[in-house]
Amino acid sequence: MQVREAMPTSPAPVSVRADSALRMGRLTRVLLYLVAIVLSILWVVPSLWILLVSFKPQGSNVLNVASWFQAPYSVGNYVYAFTHAPILLWLLNSFLVALIVTVLVLLLSVLCAFPISQNRFPGRGLVVFLLALGLMVPGEALLIPFYLLFRSLHMLDGYGALILPSIAVPFGVLLVKQFFDGLSREYFEAAKMDGCGVLRMIFMIAVPLARPALAALAIFTFLGSWNNFLWPYISITSPNVMTVPVGIPFFNSSYHTDYTLPATADVIVSIPVFIVYVLFQRHIIRGFAFSGLK
Amino acid sequence: MVSVRKYMPSYLLMLPFLILYLLFTFYPIVRGLIISLQKFYVLGTKRFVGLANYNYLLHDSTFLSSIWHTVIFVVFSVPLLVIIPFCLALIVNAPIKGRKIYQAIFFLPMILGVSVVSSVWSAMLGNYGGLVDAVLNAIGIHQEINWTAQSTQLAWISVLAVTVWWTAGFNMVLYLAALQDIPKELYEAASLDGASGWAKTCFITLPSVKRVTILIVFLQFIASFNVFGQIFLLTGGGPAGATTTIVSYIYEKSFSEFLFGPGAAASYILFFILLIVSLIQLRLMSKTE
Amino acid sequence: MKVAGKTKVLVAGVLIAGTLATACSPSQTQSAVHQSGTTTIVFWDLFGGADGTTMNQIVKKFNQTHPSIHVQEETQDWGQYYTKLITAVLGGKAPDLAISHVDHIGILRTQGVIEPLDKEAASAGIKWSQFFEPPMKDAVINGKHYAIPLDIHTYLLFYNKKVLQSAGISPSQLNIASYNDFVSICNQVKEHGYVPLSFGESGWGPLAIWETFYYQMGGTSLLNKAGTKETFTDATNDAVAIKAMQKLYDLYNTSHIIPSNISNPDELFKSGKAAFCIEGTWSVDDFHKALGDQLGVAQMPVFFQQPAAWADSHTFVLPVNPNRTPEQTKDAMIFVKWIENHAWMWAKAGHIPANKIIQNTPQFKALPYRSNYGSQASFVKYFPMTDTVWMMSDNEILNKLQGILLKQTPVARGVQEMGQILDRQLEE
Fold it and tell me: N or C, which terminus of chain B has less Cβ within 10 Å?
């Protein structure tokens, strides 16, 4: 797959832009602004509406456009949501699980990818084959064995069930291996001459060089874990262990006939993520750019 | 055995990953295959039944239609999620004011997660109170349309719209990364030759994003085949089962009816479909290289 | 961390730390740490509608009056409730106490999810003779009690007096003696620009109306006695089953009394745009809060030959849970007994308490609207209980039914196919 033809990208600064070269006609420019603004409105209206609805008192009339912009507004929903469901705990669980999964994926991938990339040990072919095979299996196809496995490990409904299935992913190993493959061997030969141990070699030389690839892998993994729904939905039944994707439907199921409280929960879990995203937006884009996925 | 000892550090480094990999990917693959050949009761007996579960599925109209529904979703969602993100990327890559803001807006839904996205949109798409119908009413179209449940077509349109809104930003960023990698000299040279903006887009931009397009198509295919969350939370597979996909079927069979045999068999069929699709695409990819 | 400027990391860190701090402070979560000496009872229910709030209050009240017991209520999604319950029991994470519909306990028993509670109920002082007969019939399997009934809930006809008045119909003289009466009243309402009947088109609601029509037309039990075969497509019932379906179909597609697919019928009725709403007893209090004196409540009209109304019962069950200590079991039963004794609180939502003695309490008698529908308990009709199938949440059946209403399958053929689906499932 894509990893195969990945090349170590020379880290050219992305922010350098070809503005002068992209000069365009007046009409095109106006058109472009128009399209950009219309699309942005389409994209942003659902979130704004939910924000608005979340400030309407519980059970109040939100049935027509006019009612959205008329009083009453209240923060009652927020008070209610905070006191009736461990929403912040779900947010924290999601963050922690995504963080732990990301760190472990990076660590395991680096450790495993380095020897595959640098050494021709017996059994290397088999390992690569197993990894490539695993790449094709969607997690959605393994729900039953996962369920039985975690059941016999007595780990259903716990953090283990949330973390363990996501940390040994072949995608990560293959991505990092591809990047290591492209590194000049001289770095490592020289280090070896200096009597540098293999762990030192990995963490002092290989990892810093592979930072762009690792950043990309971290972003992919974090987003993947953050959005993970089906397996957590099946395995987690206690409110205190739930992540956001499981907690929100759980919360909403108590308020079938109301728009305002689900909207409030949506806003509460979205705001911290939004802030973090805005802070790191540049790095996320750069991560994609350096991902070697091109 | 000398070489094994010589490469001991290599094996040790791989060990943590490989143990976890064998336990949490490889063992489940094998276990799933075995269960798919069994009549399996969680709290009771298991009995080898050969291909009976597969046979059951091939005669289950719900399963066959779930494959068909999944194919429909793939056929519509993949092109939409290639073309729209590309256009979005062109917009946010153009030298216009506030492009960072547009970029943030388009990517935002991706970080909300499927549950929040579905929760927001089920409020938007309901009738007598949903945003879409309210706006239609406000501009004089007095229809109360229940977008997610009224008809098969509307339900699919809703699911597609939500999927695009949710995930277009991800593919847009992949495109954006590729666009920003195009050497500006190409555009400068073209400008000197008097090429128009549109010409530059067609003759420089499009060819340059070919590789990333192939990648996006590949990833999107897999993601679309595995579609579940937004459908489960938005339409519940309805109306009248019209949006039940393969993964919804697997979920229903396995964790609602607790028929693990057919559930595992359906999982394997999904696995094989994906394998074949992946192999075909890899083939095409290596050809275009 | 050169990658991500120090300020940003700092802000992100503060944000996460803040979340951490608030998330872990006990006042924010329901599952706060309790002082030693209290037993915690994890109690699962599926009260997602208006009755959810009522149950919240009951649990709160119980916890306040019983310092040594802490009941932790966890409400699961109605549609996924039994899936979640089975998953949790199989996964060794069962709740200590749970709600089940009385006609679902056959399945739960077969799947090994619940256990008999004769002994526990006896020592808590539950007297079986005090309960109404319909829910008790299904609560006993092979001579063992598996469930303690909490309520009888049934469909009622709600109406909006103001809407009826403005459509020229006097609410005090509202007389619905037949299906045709109802349709003509609804047509009059429609001419005045209101929604005649607010009712959904998906889920189990239409199935319950079909069942009501079927029994009102004189259909006999939906399944044979042994529960192995459906009987509504038999020679004796076939015509009735199809006619009942046709009359339901007509409401959506011929007379258009029910607008196509309302996504939230309760909200629509509460907003004052609809004249009628067929909803469960659980909505009485909720509707009253929204509409006040405009609200009228009537028992299910006799649309056809004889009175009948869909009904079901919520019951308490003991999930199989090896981790539940005898003390927790005892305390769970104290909770059950307490609710039974205070079931007028539960009746506030609108339900009819399953325990007959509650009917005579002053608190129950003081509740509004009760006289309008109290007698409905005498003609309620439950869905049949089996070891494998519960029609109310049977997706295949419900999909087929919705297919009929969406004009994808002709009425007569659709009913036949529902029968075939049911027969196949009963065989499995």
Answer: N
The residue among C402 and B127 whose pLDDT is bigger is: C402
Of the partner residues B130, B144, B149, the one whose CB lies closest to the CB of residue C202: B149
Q: Which two tokens stand for residue B29?
A: 């693959």
Q: What is the model's pLDDT at position A173? A: 93
Give the tokens for residue C99: 């709600």
| Closest CA–CA distance from residue C266 to any residue of chain A (Å) | 7
Please check the confidence at residue A201 and state whether its pLDDT lies above 90.
no
Closest CA relative to residue B107, chosen from C221, A43, C80, A31: A43
Q: What percent of chain C has pLDDT over 90?
A: 69
pLDDT at B282 exceeding the cut of 60: yes
Query: Could you give the CA distance from residue B237 to residue B73 in angstroms, rounded to a whole number?
Result: 13
CA closest to C269 among chain B residues: B128
Q: What is the CATH number of domain C36-150+313-370?
A: 3.40.190.10
> What would you measure as the largest C-alpha separation in chain A, in angstroms?
76
C-alpha A36/C-alpha C270 separation (Å) is: 40
Asked whether the predicted pLDDT for residue C309 surpasses 50, the reply is yes
How many distinct structural domains can be found in chain B? 1
Q: Which domain CATH number covers B119?
A: 1.10.3720.10
pLDDT given at position A24: 62
In a domain? residue B32: no
Residue C3 scores a pLDDT above 80? no
Domain C36-150+313-370 shares a fold with domain C154-311+381-427: yes
Neighboring chain B residues of A24 at a CB cutoff of 8 Å: 94, 197
Peptide bond into A122 cis (omega under 30): no
> Using a CB-CB distance cutoff of 8 angstroms, which residues of chain A are in contact with residue C270?
59, 257
Of B43, B127, B252, the CB nearest to C395: B252
Parse chain C into domains and list their residue ranges: 36-150+313-370, 154-311+381-427
Which positions ≥6 away from C301 have C-beta within 8 Å? C157, C176, C177, C182
For C74-127, the pLDDT digits (tens) are: 999 888 899 999 989 988 889 999 999 999 999 999 888 999 999 999 999 999
Give the position of tokens 């006019």. Answer: A66
Displacement of CA C378 from its chain's centroid (Å) = 19
Per residue in A265-277, pLDDT tens?
999 998 888 888 8
Is residue B103 situated within a structural domain? yes
Structural domain including B214 reads 54-288
Average pLDDT, chain A: 83
- Mean pLDDT of the residues in chain C: 89
Structure tokens at A265: 């929960």
- Predicted confidence (pLDDT) at residue C184 exceeds the cutoff of 90: yes
With beta carbons under 8 A apart, name residues in chain A contacting B198.
28
E strands in chain B: 38-40, 46-48
What is the reported pLDDT for B42? Answer: 77
The answer to the question of residue B29 being in a domain is no
Tokens of C191: 């001419």
Q: Which CATH class is domain C154-311+381-427?
A: alpha beta
Mutate to test the interface with A, among B12, B13, B17 (most CBs of A within 10 A): B17
Going B208 to B211 to B216 to B217, the CA torsion angle's sign is: positive
First to last CA, chain C: 60
Query: CB distance B42–C273 less than 8 Å?
Result: no
Chain A touched by C403 (CB under 8 Å): no
The superfamily in CATH containing domain A85-254 is MetI-like (1.10.3720.10)
Helix (H, G, I), strand (E, B) or coil at C288: helix
C93 touches C126 (CB < 8 A) = no
